[in-house]
Design brief:
Layout: H1 2-10, H2 22-30, H3 36-40, H4 44-71, H5 77-127, E1 130-133, H6 146-149, H7 155-163, H8 171-181, E2 186-189, H9 196-207, E3 218-221, H10 225-238, E4 246-248, H11 251-256, E5 266-269, H12 271-281, E6 290-294, H13 296-299, H14 305-314, E7 321-326, H15 331-338, E8 345-349, E9 359-367, H16 369-382, E10 388-391, H17 395-407, E11 412-415, H18 421-432, E12 438-441, E13 456-459, H19 466-473, E14 483-490, H20 494-506, H21 513-516
Parallel strand pairs: 2-7, 2-8, 3-5, 3-6, 4-5, 6-7, 9-14, 10-12, 10-13, 11-12, 13-14
Antiparallel strand pairs: 1-8
Helix pairs in contact: 8-9, 9-10, 12-14
Bound molecules: adenosine-5'-triphosphate.
The site of adenosine-5'-triphosphate has 19 residues, from helix 9.
C-alpha cells in the first residue's frame, strides 16, 4: 500500500493514453520476458549485423588511435580527460609506491640511527669501564650538557653543577642518571669516591617539583647519621636556588615530629629512625616516587633487613623507582634486592667489589699489638702527611689509642658511638677544616664519608671483611685525587690476609708472593680478640 501510494505520487500529473497507443501497447505486451539467452537467440540475424558493426567501429577506433599516437599530441578532449584521470590514478599508485618507499627509507634511516646510537653508547661504556645488564638501557651521558639537551634539565639546577666545578660526569653518573631519568630502577656498584651521591640525587631533583604539599616524594636511606647529614648537605648544594624542602631525619624529628603538617620533598634518614617515624608517628610514605638505598649492602646486613622491608612496604606508590648504590655489592645482597625490584638495570663501574685504583695500598707486618703502636709512631716520625684517618676495631680501642696519641705532639681527635651526635659531627668537621690532623675512628665513618683532602688511611686494626677494607680505605683517593692506605697486620690476622691481598692485587697493587700463597678463608668476617693498646708493660 505504501508502495502504491509512492508510485501514484511519483506519476502524478503524467497521463499515459492507453487507447491512443493501444496497438503499440499490445505489441509490447506480446514480447517474451527478456532473458539473457532469449535475448541472444531470437535476434541472431540482427545481432550478427551489430557484431559486424561493432568490430568495424573497433577497427576504425584502433586505427584512429594508432594515427593519433603517430600524430603525437592531437588527441580528443575526452581521451585527454581520461588520460588525465588515468595519469592521476597512476599518480596515486606511484604516490603509494613512493610513500611506501619513503616509509621504508625512513625505517632504514631510523634503524641505522639506532644502530649508531647503540654503537656510540657501547664505545662510551667501554671508554669509561661501565658494564651493564638489562633490557633497553639508555645511553650514557657524553657530557653534563646532555642533561639539558636530552632531558630538559632546569637551568638553575644545571648552573649549580658548574658552580660546584663539576665539569664532566663521572662514569657512574654517566650511566645511572639516564637510567633513573627514564624511570628505570637500578643496582649501581662503583668505586668509593666516584660520585655516586650526585648520581642518585640529581635525577631526583630533576624529576620532582619543589615545594610540593603532597607529602614526601623521595627517601634516601643511609646506614649512619653522619652519612645522612652529609647527603643532606650535598643535596642542598645541588638544589641551590630551587625551593625544595630537604630534610634530615634527626632523633628529635623522628620521636616528636608532626609529620601531618611537615613540608618535605626529599627526606634523608637512617633506617631505624625512619621506621620509627612511620610506625609510631604516622609518617606517610605512600607518595614517595624515589627510594634510594645508599650503601645498600650495609643496609641489608643482618639486623637491618626487617627494617628495610618495612620501609620498602611503607613506600607503597606503585610507580616508585628504587635504586641501590654501593662500592661493594655482594651477589647475595643483589639476589635479595632483586626480589623487590622491577626490571632493574645493573650497572658496574670497573670491577665489582674492588678498591679505587687511585689509592696506593700497603700491607705492613707489625707482629704484635705492641708492634703496631711502635710502627704507627715510627711512620708518624718518618712522614706524617695530614689529614690522616686511623681505623680501629671498636670504641674501647679508639679511646685507648687516643690516650696514647695524646702524649705525642699530634693534633688528634676521636669519633665513636659513645659520643653525642653533635660531638661526632664536630669531629668530622674539624678533620675537614684541618683543625685536627689525625682522626681515630671506628666503623661509624667507614662508609660514604667524603673527606676530599684526606691523604692517608691507616688500618691500625685489620678490617673484618674485604668490603669493610674497601670502604675504609676509600675515605681517601676521592674525586680523582690520589691517596695512600696502610694496613697493619699481626700473626692473628694472617688467616684473613689473603682475602684483603686479593683486593690489593685486583687494583694493581703489589703483594708479596708468600701472602698470595696463603689459603683463602671461607669465613666472610674476621673478628679477633686483641690485647689493649698500651705502651705500658704487661702486668704478668
Ligand atoms: N662530576 C664530578 N666531578 C668532580 N667531582 C665530583 C663529581 N661528582 C661528584 N664529585 C665529588 O666527588 C666526591 C666523592 O663523591 P661521593 O661522595 O658521591 O662518592 P661516592 O661514590 O658516593 O663514594 P662512597 O662509595 O665512598 O660513598 C665528592 O666530593 C663530590 O663532590
Amino acid at each position: 500500500m505504501a508502495e502504491a501510494k509512492l508510485s501514484s505520487g511519483l506519476f502524478a500529473g503524467t497521463h499515459f493514453n492507453r487507447k491512443r497507443f493501444a496497438a503499440d501497447f499490445a505489441r509490447f505486451q506480446e514480447c517474451p520476458p527478456p532473458t539473457t539467452a532469449a535475448a541472444a537467440a531470437p535476434s541472431a540475424p540482427s545481432s550478427e549485423k551489430k557484431r559486424k558493426r561493432k568490430s568495424k567501429a573497433k577497427a576504425k577506433k584502433s586505427k584512429k588511435k594508432r594515427e593519433d599516437a603517430a600524430a603525437g599530441s592531437d588527441v580528443v578532449e575526452g581521451f585527454n580527460v581520461f588520460k588525465g584521470l588515468a595519469d592521476k590514478k597512476l599518480g596515486v599508485e606511484s604516490e603509494k609506491v613512493e610513500t611506501s618507499k619513503d616509509e621504508d627509507e625512513e625505517v632504514i634511516r631510523r634503524r641505522k640511527e639506532i644502530e649508531r646510537e647503540i654503537e656510540r653508547a657501547a664505545i662510551l661504556r667501554k671508554r669509561f669501564d661501565i658494564h651493564i645488564s638489562g633490557q633497553n638501557v639508555p645511553a650514557p651521558l657524553e657530557s653534563f650538557e646532555e642533561l639539558v639537551s636530552r632531558y630538559g634539565c632546569d637551568s638553575k639546577l644545571f648552573k649549580n653543577l658548574s658552580e660546584l666545578r663539576f665539569q664532566e660526569p663521572t662514569p657512574i653518573q654517566r650511566q645511572t642518571i639516564p637510567i633513573l631519568l627514564s624511570g628505570r630502577e637500578c643496582f649501581a656498584c662503583a668505586p668509593t669516591g666516584s660520585g655516586k651521591t650526585l648520581a642518585f640525587l640529581f635525577p631526583i631533583l630533576m624529576k620532582i617539583k619543589p615545594g610540593s604539599k603532597g607529602g614526601v616524594r623521595a627517601v634516601i636511606l643511609c646506614p649512619t647519621r653522619e652519612l645522612a647529614a652529609q647527603t643532606v648537605r650535598e643535596c642542598k648544594k645541588l638544589a641551590k636556588r630551587k625551593k625544595y624542602y630537604i630534610k634530615l631525619m634527626t632523633k628529635d624529628l623522628s620521636k616528636s615530629g608532626n609529620f601531618k603538617d611537615m613540608h618535605c620533598d626529599i627526606l634523608v634518614s637512617t633506617p631505624l629512625r625512619l621506621d620509627h617515624a612511620v610506625r609510631k608517628k604516622g609518617l606517610d610514605l605512600s607518595s614517595v616516587e624515589y627510594l634510594v638505598l645508599d650503601e645498600s649492602d650495609k643496609l641489608f646486613e643482618l639486623g637491618f633487613v626487617e627494617v628495610i622491608d618495612s620501609v620498602v612496604a611503607a613506600c607503597s606508590n606503585p610507580s616508585i623507582i628504587r635504586s641501590l648504590f654501593s662500592a661493594t655489592l655482594p651477589d647475595s645482597i643483589e639476589a635479595l634486592a632483586r626480589t623487590i625490584m622491577h626490571d632493574a638495570v645493573r650497572v658496574i663501574v670497573g670491577r665489582k667489589n674492588s678498591a679505587s685504583s687511585l689509592i696506593k695500598q700497603k700491607l705492613i707486618f707489625a707482629g704484635t699489638e705492641k708492634g703496631k703502636l711502635i710502627a704507627l709512631r715510627q711512620s708518624f716520625q718518618e712522614s706524617l702527611n695530614p689529614p690522616v684517618l686511623i681505623f680501629v676495631q671498636n670504641k674501647d680501642r679508639a679511646k685507648e689509642l687516643y690516650k696514647e696519641l695524646a702524649f705525642d705532639d699530634v693534633r688528634a681527635d676521636v669519633i665513636h658511638s659513645d659520643l653525642t651526635e653533635q660531638q661526632r659531627l664536630d669531629a668530622v668537621d674539624n678533620l675537614r677544616a684541618g683543625k685536627t690532623w689525625v682522626l681515630i675512628a671506628t666503623e661509624v665513618i667507614a662508609r660514604g664519608m667524603d673527606f676530599k683532602g684526606l691523604n692517608c688511611v691507616i688500618n691500625y686494626d685489620f678490617p673484618e671483611s674485604a668490603a669493610a677494607y674497601i670502604h675504609r680505605i676509600g675515605r681517601c683517593g676521592r674525586a680523582g685525587r690520589s691517596g695512600e692506605a696502610i694496613t697493619f697486620f699481626t700473626e692473628e690476622d694472617k688467616p684473613f690476609l689473603r682475602n684483603i691481598a686479593n683486593v690489593l692485587t685486583s687494583s694493581g697493587c703489589e703483594v708479596p708472593s708468600w701472602i698470595m700463597a696463603l689459603p683463602k678463608l671461607k669465613r666472610k668476617k674476621h673478628r679477633v680478640e686483641r690485647d689493649p693498646i698500651s705502651t705500658l708493660p704487661d702486668e704478668d
